[in-house]
Amino acid sequence: MDKNNERECNEDLIRERRKCNFNIEELTNIVDGGKARTARRREIQRLLINDPEFLDEIPQDYMSHEDRYSNELRKSAHLMQKLADQESGHDIHQDIGALTGILKDGNPLMVHLSMFIPAILGQANSEQQEKWLGRSLRNEIIGTYAQTELGHGTFVRGLETRATYDPTVEEFVLHTPTITATKWWPGGLGKTCNYCVVMAQLYTQGRCYGPHPFIVQLRDEETHRSLPGITLGEIGPRLGLNSNDNGFLKFENHRIPRTNMLMKHSQVLKDGTYVKPLHNKLSYGTMMLVRVGIVGACSRSLQYAVTIATRYSAVRHQSEIVPGQPEPQILDYQTQQYKVIPQIASVFALIFSARSLSKIQSSVTAKLKDGNTDLLPELHSLSSGLKALSSSDASWGVEVCRLACGGHGYLASSNLPRTYTGTTCAITYEGENTVLLLQVARYLIKSYRSIGKETGASSVSYLADQTSLASSSSSFSNKALVQAFKLSALSLVAEAEARLQKLCDMGQEFYHAWNYCSVLLLKCAEAHTRYYICEKYEQTVDSLKASEGVKNVLQSLCRLYLIYHITLTHGDFLKCGALTPRNIAVLEGEMCDLLAVLRPQAVSIVDAFDIPDELLGSTLGCWDGNVYQRLYDEALKSPLNKTDVPDAYYKYLLPLMKSSL
Ligand SMILES: CCCCCCCC(=O)SCCNC(=O)CCNC(=O)[C@H](O)C(C)(C)COP(=O)(O)OP(=O)(O)OC[C@H]1O[C@@H](n2cnc3c(N)ncnc32)[C@H](O)[C@@H]1OP(=O)(O)O
Ligand SMILES: Cc1cc2nc3c(=O)[nH]c(=O)nc-3n(C[C@H](O)[C@H](O)[C@H](O)COP(=O)(O)OP(=O)(O)OC[C@H]3O[C@@H](n4cnc5c(N)ncnc54)[C@H](O)[C@@H]3O)c2cc1C
């Protein structure tokens, strides 16, 4: 699509784009993280979009379960080959954002890239990396991360798969003792992978040392048949991601060499002696890494959904605002603006938080190399909280965008249903959100109780600022609003701690008191993480070196985000005295003003997300706004439209209609 050729474009969208009062390319660079990143993303996307191998012969929704898998595997393999062939060399992890949209509905090689290779990098010692890393990077072996079992996903300590060391032959015996110990869910496990990292309970010298990672060959490298002692299969259709082959796995006393235990952090020596890691949660490192990546992935899903909903809202006309006047664009309804524009604001919140989290992760990883694990709890807490809020915000945001498109948003060709199912899975996988938020709460309460002792962890240092509890601000600058978030979080933590203490003082065991307070604890974790996101948003926009137009847009979006979230949870702000009912009313009014200010820029802001039509894959969201023709053309692709009268009519309907004659 030639974006300079207005003749091909819907008139409403032309008008919207003429209202733009900022430099779109500059905003695109901010979204990508710099000019060079934008150029790199575009280069990769061009490479993919122009390649006919990535086209589907028929829309995926009309394919059988097997064909969906096979079609997506074909494209995934082609993608890997293509990226490997690039002369410049390619960092798939760096460029992962550029690939969004090219593979649809689950990619059978995704967990190979996002967990198997990172698990080898993070958990294998140098000899082991020598043996497996190169092979897996060259795709000579394909792996997955097999942790979850039928009986346990959340409670990793409760896993049942056993790895029992036999020093006489220096081997581990992997065994699935019960049906509930069956590995269940790992992406690509059913049919694609021939290797995997298995998390199993380590037994040596008669003692259990908890879950540890082992690398296990599952299938013959020549025939791809599953090896003796290993049962493998696919788990069946899911809400979404149905092109993946999420699988199950059982071991029947399957033996692997001792050196297949990933031994970067803990070891079992030849005689069976166990050597402890520096920190006993280092074996959870792969999960933490992926949680960080999920925050960025969620911002990308939301960019897709909000691009579709905003453009469609500019093209769609319905009902009337002024009786008797022409039907307005639905984007002119304030309620529609309230659905769509806060989601645009949310995209930037997630982008800036993801960047801040990755920086912290890099510094923790660097410290770990020197044996320093001090900041691991801080990273665990932040990555858990941000994974949870980004996935729930993005899922809700995508769903709101779908609803904002009315009936057409329910059509598969809008690409909103698939964007939703591809986002909501992140609420559950890589640590279910409630569970992760309770981990954050645990860290908050512990930090609150150790006020006065230096923790060195910056995200919770505000808990020591007791004086702020007594003060509410009369100013409404963005900084002051961020302070209100801080006060709300601090006051919730103080309340939860007091409630816990009271129950304990009354004789309850701590863990019962914890469960009894867990709804409140969840709120603490959410408020703390929201405060973190708001603070990063405000700081990033404030310190941004940008043109006036771009800065104004981002400042308005940031302010909208702050006020939107205050209004959603205003009870917490009132309860702690951070804001008064009058303040809330004023902010609610200002939120409506901000919607009106941002409304004329909305199409241009989503244009700045710069998602090519071929990747957006939506009848409703295309750049030219030619929505109705596209909807009609897509409908014609339905196999039921191949004939005027379907066979089913003769088989079932005709006999029914004639039966009463
Ligand atoms: C896009 C890519 C596609 C991805 C596809 C999806 C792939 C997957 O889903 S793979 C499977 C993912 N599975 C999970 O995430 C399981 C979630 N569960 C867990 O992580 C753990 O069971 C968890 C953290 C909830 C509890 O762990 P557990 O060992 O019971 O610890 P727990 O007793 O609660 O806490 C003990 C201490 O360890 C700390 N801790 C727990 N985890 C960590 C960690 N990763 N790092 C540092 N400290 C940690 C706690 O903070 C606590 O500290 P303290 O005692 O000082 O308060
Ligand atoms: C699409 C998809 C892909 C996946 N890919 C992989 C993969 O590649 N590899 C892999 O190993 N796994 C994978 N998983 C599994 C995933 O990691 C688990 O489903 C997830 O960790 C949640 O565990 P669970 O299913 O046991 O849920 P449960 O823990 O049984 O959760 C059920 C309910 O119980 C609640 N609950 C549980 N424990 C607590 C608690 N302590 N406190 C309060 N409430 C609690 C939860 O909040 C939830 O409401 C995948 C899952 C999905 C959906």
From TrEMBL:
The keyword Membrane does not apply. It comes from Cherax quadricarinatus (Australian red claw crayfish). This is Acyl-coenzyme A oxidase. Pathway: Lipid metabolism; peroxisomal fatty acid beta-oxidation. Residues 479-658 form the Acyl-CoA oxidase C-terminal domain. The active site is at E430. It is found in: Peroxisome. Residues 23-142 form the Acyl-coenzyme A oxidase N-terminal domain. Its cofactor is FAD. One of its GO terms (cellular component) is peroxisome. Keywords: ATP-binding, FAD, Fatty acid metabolism, Flavoprotein, Lipid metabolism, Nucleotide-binding, Oxidoreductase, Peroxisome. FAD binds at T148, G187. Belongs to the acyl-CoA oxidase family. It comes from the Eukaryota.
